[in-house]
Design goal:
alpha+beta; eight-stranded antiparallel barrel; 8 strands; 35% strand; globular
Length: 204
């Protein structure tokens, strides 16, 4: 099981157009890919739409990647797209698969670029921390490690509000159950984006 995050960038006033165009695009591949979510960025770099899909095999992911790369009109939005990024990920094996559900209207995408060799201890630390920090980690949608590009992990969280996010993080930090032991020491660079689900997003 593999995941892909597609990031579609466009002028700010074109985000809804890109959303509807990309919805048709991913629907064309629904037999080989499962659409899990679509979000527009709200805090961070604006004018971006992010789509999370699951693939059962590497061949299915590769075929869908080729479809986008070779298309003259990728995601049916080529006329307005300013850039297109597609990242392949494998899930942390000890986490459950992503299922469509309501986590809340506020989602956070966090990417940690890791030092070389930092993935294995990061995985170990996360596995040990999930249960002790359950009040916080039950809001974790997925954590994944990249299969291409520099070593990094991307985790997605869902919250009812930014206030809930802040309170849960403060409580977990105060209790000493978060962050995962051995994790921060291997982070080279970290970014965070707050995004809101599109009306058609299965994760909402």
């Amino acid at each position: 099981m593999l995941y892909e995050i597609s990031t579609l960038s466009c002028p700010l006033l074109s985000i809804e157009e890109v959303s509807q165009c990309s919805r048709r695009w991913v629907s064309d591949a629904q037999e080989t890919a499962t659409v899990l979510g679509s979000w527009r960025t709200e805090i961070g770099t604006l004018g971006r739409l992010m789509i999370l899909r699951r693939f059962e095999t590497a061949d299915a992911l590769a075929a869908e990647r080729r479809r986008a790369l070779l298309s003259a009109n990728p995601f049916h939005a080529g006329e307005v797209l300013t850039s297109l990024g597609m990242e392949s990920y494998a899930p942390f094996a000890f986490l459950p698969p992503v299922l469509p559900r309501a986590y809340g209207p506020v989602y956070e995408f966090r990417t940690y670029h890791l030092i070389p060799g930092g993935l294995s201890p990061t995985l170990s630390g996360w596995e040990k921390a999930i249960e002790p920090a359950k009040a916080y980690t039950e809001h974790l949608v997925i954590n994944m490690y990249a299969l291409d590009g520099p070593p990094r992990i991307t985790h997605i969280w869902g919250f009812a509000s930014l206030e809930q996010r802040a309170a849960l993080r403060a409580s977990a930090y105060g209790a000493g159950v978060w962050p995962p032991q051995g994790g921060p020491e291997h982070i080279l660079e970290a970014t965070s984006t707050i995004a809101l689900p599109q009306p058609w997003s299965p994760l909402h």
